[in-house]
Design brief:
single chain; 255 residues; alpha+beta; 2 domains; six-stranded mixed sheet; globular
Length: 255
């Protein structure tokens, strides 16, 4: 388990607990535990980053396994602040890209373990293959399935449509949260465009640097503004930039 050296000690402790406890709870069912997201891109920010993990199992979680994991999360939530930042899903081996597969997840916006259908997200598996961290089990590069160009294009288009819907739902909203979302959407659109062009993933900082050299000059000022914030609570885009950012995302074309 090769963890980044700059992560907080209590997050490191949580990762170590996962690597110890999950194999015991899921005895005979667990294939591997993998970290993806900002921790793997050297882009982790303790003040605002979530912690992303995906657990691969041989079969869907049974009632006992689900109950014990649910209890584990509840106990750890009282002991470790990072449980509130977890985005974790339990998916079935050999069905990792199957949208009809079953899945369980613990997400920071719900704060509890739930059963649901899988979204078969290929972006997760590109990240795992590219730079994922193996906490336990089969090596990340060996577990990740091949992602075809069409599969990636479909996923990027879906993510882009999510952004456009999010922006459309905030038209006329001048709250701080709306301005923060606008900036998030612009930077995420840069990552989507980077992936569409390079068939690889990039952190927000990497995608930003690439976009500032690649996109038409008319969009660069708002993209630059999106990377200048000190606090996610600040309203740091003005009204003109807010509208320009929305138009920038609308203008993204993957083909």
């Amino acid at each position: 388990m090769n963890l980044p050296k700059n992560i907080p000690k209590d997050l490191s402790s949580l990762l170590e607990a996962m690597a110890t406890d999950f194999p015991a709870i899921l005895h005979g069912n667990l294939v591997g535990i993998y970290v993806w997201g900002s921790l793997t891109y050297d882009a982790f920010d303790e003040t605002c980053s979530d912690f992303d993990s995906v657990e691969v199992t041989r079969r869907h979680l049974g009632d006992r396994e689900f109950s014990e994991l649910d209890g584990w999360f509840k106990t750890k939530a009282e002991q470790n602040r990072w449980v509130k930042r977890i985005d974790m899903r339990f998916v079935i081996d050999r069905e990792l890209l199957d949208k009809a597969s079953r899945c369980c997840g613990f997400y920071n916006h719900t704060g509890k373990l739930t059963r649901h259908g899988s979204d078969g997200n290929p972006i997760i598996w590109m990240n795992v293959a590219q730079c994922g961290i193996t906490l336990w089990g089969k090596d990340a590069k060996l577990i990740a399935p091949h992602v075809s160009d069409q599969c990636l294009n479909d996923a990027l288009l879906l993510e882009l449509n999510y952004l456009k819907e999010g922006l459309a739902s905030r038209i006329g909203d001048r709250s701080d949260k709306a301005f923060v979302y606008n900036a998030y959407a612009v930077l995420t659109a840069c990552r989507i465009l980077y992936s569409a062009r390079h068939r690889a993933l990039a952190s927000k900082d990497q995608a930003y640097a690439w976009a500032m050299e690649t996109v038409p000059p008319m969009w660069r000022a708002v993209i630059h503004a999106c990377c200048q914030r000190e606090s996610i609570e600040e309203r740091w885009l003005d009204d003109a930039q807010f509208g320009t950012g929305r138009e920038a995302v609308r203008g993204v074309r993957l083909r």
